[in-house]
UniProtKB/TrEMBL annotation:
Listed name of the protein: Methionine import ATP-binding protein MetN
InterPro entries: AAA+_ATPase (IPR003593), ABC_transporter-like_ATP-bd (IPR003439), ABC_transporter-like_CS (IPR017871), ACT-like_dom_sf (IPR045865), MetN_ABC (IPR041701), MetN_ABC_transporter-like (IPR050086), NIL_domain (IPR018449), P-loop_NTPase (IPR027417)
Protein origin, superkingdom: Bacteria
All residue ranges annotated as the ABC transporter domain in the record: 2-244
Single GO MF descriptor: ATP binding
UniProt keyword annotations, A-Z: Amino-acid transport, ATP-binding, Cell membrane, Membrane, Nucleotide-binding, Translocase, Transport
Keyword Nucleotide-binding: yes
Keyword GTP-binding among UniProt keywords: no
Length: 339
């Protein structure tokens, strides 16, 4: 649905190499039709610029951007406008017109696209029903809560029946409960309307609950990408590792590990838990074989894409030689805090 081929965007006013700032640096990315694709990264990593390249609010310095097979760079102004109309956008700060009603906000892009007043109002009412705000059509944005405003933002983005929805930190200004509701709505947008979603966020929890695929950006580059479960279970890049740990909260950090050591006299090992049940059986067999006893000292196991993921930190007790044998056999399983 969306393809970026070796895309670079340099801003001339930056202080980087050759006087320019490379906000997006040789990025290639493929977003399959019907997927929910998350782009994560710290502030300044280049996420917003990447999103703006997809709907051609920014032009790439080099490389090409294809949406639905059409190369945006090769299209004329009219073609680009058409492609842009097939892409909806949702913003962190909602960007609603304060002086227009909810219905007026949602009808606005339809009027711009040339719909009659009656058509625009009818379609706007329809999308407002979809987002559960049909009773609020005559209100003004400031009479609504943050979550309701974002639902209006989503309704406005859906009004022109786009094939793609781009979300720029769509839940970052919302509290956890409202975030949950907006993510559930975006999930319906994807599942019921078949709309491809690309969202940028600095919260891995958003990726975990909504996305099928994820790309991690650092310094303008995509440092890692893949299926959400694969990236969560085997992060390769330090930036990814930090994001994943922030969502899973599964391992004791340095100070927590010190407290565990003070509390538990035996040897501490951290063992990953994945969807692979065989790994769990292997662990209990090892402990039994070597007559090593255990206590759970710390655990963080949840679900990612409906499959278990996390880790447990165990205190092992038994003869030193037996514990050594278990720890050695854990081999591929990760040892942390072992002493
Ligand atoms: N129009 C512009 N002119 C000059 N520099 C820009 C422009 N837009 C972005 N940049 C710079 O490009 C880099 C990437 O910015 P971008 O907004 O894409 O990052 P981001 O990952 O979205 O960060 P944030 O989460 O803070 O929005 C930053 O160093 C930023 O200052």
């Amino acid at each position: 649905m969306i393809e970026l081929r070796d895309v670079t965007k340099t801003f001339p006013q930056g202080k980087g190499e050759g006087g320019g700032l490379r906000a997006v640096d040789h990025v290639s990315l493929h977003v399959p039709r019907g997927s929910v694709y998350g782009i994560v990264g710290h502030s300044g990593a280049g996420k917003s610029t990447l999103l703006r390249l997809i709907n051609h609010l920014e032009e790439p310095t080099s490389g090409s951007v294809l949406v639905g097979g059409a190369d945006l760079g090769a299209l004329g102004e009219r073609g680009r406008r058409q492609v842009r109309q097939s892409i909806g956008m949702v913003f962190q700060q909602f960007n609603l017109f304060r002086s227009r009603t909810v219905l007026g906000n949602v009808a606005y892009p339809l009027k711009v696209a040339g719909a009659s007043r009656a058509e625009a109002r009818e379609r706007a009412a329809e999308v407002l029903r979809f987002v559960g705000l049909d009773g609020h059509a005559r209100r003004y944005p400031e009479q609504l809560s943050g979550g309701q405003r974002q639902r209006v933002g989503i309704a406005r983005a859906l009004a022109t029946s786009p094939g793609v929805l781009l979300c720029d930190e769509a839940t970052s200004a919302l509290d956890p409960q409202t975030t949950h509701e907006v993510l559930a709505l975006l999930e319906r947008v994807n599942r019921e309307l078949g709309i491809t979603i690309v969202l940028i966020t600095h919260e891995m929890d958003v990726v975990r609950s909504l996305c099928d695929r994820v790309a991690v950006m650092a310094d303008g580059k995509v440092v890692e990408s893949g299926g959400v479960y694969e990236v969560f279970s085997r992060p390769q890049h330090p930036t990814t590792e930090a994001f994943v740990r922030s969502a899973l909260h599964d391992r004791p950090d340095g100070p927590a590990l010190e407290r565990l050591r003070a509390r538990h006299g035996g040897r501490l090992v951290t063992v990953p838990v994945t969807g692979d049940a065989a790994g769990g059986h292997e662990l209990s067999r090892l402990l039994r074989e070597h007559a090593v006893d255990f206590t759970v000292a710390h655990a963080g196991v949840g679900e990612v894409q409906n499959r278990p993921l996390g880790s447990v930190t165990l205190e092992l007790r038994g003869a030193e030689a037996d514990i050594d044998a278990v720890v050695a056999r854990l081999g591929g399983l990760e040892k942390a805090g072992a002493r």
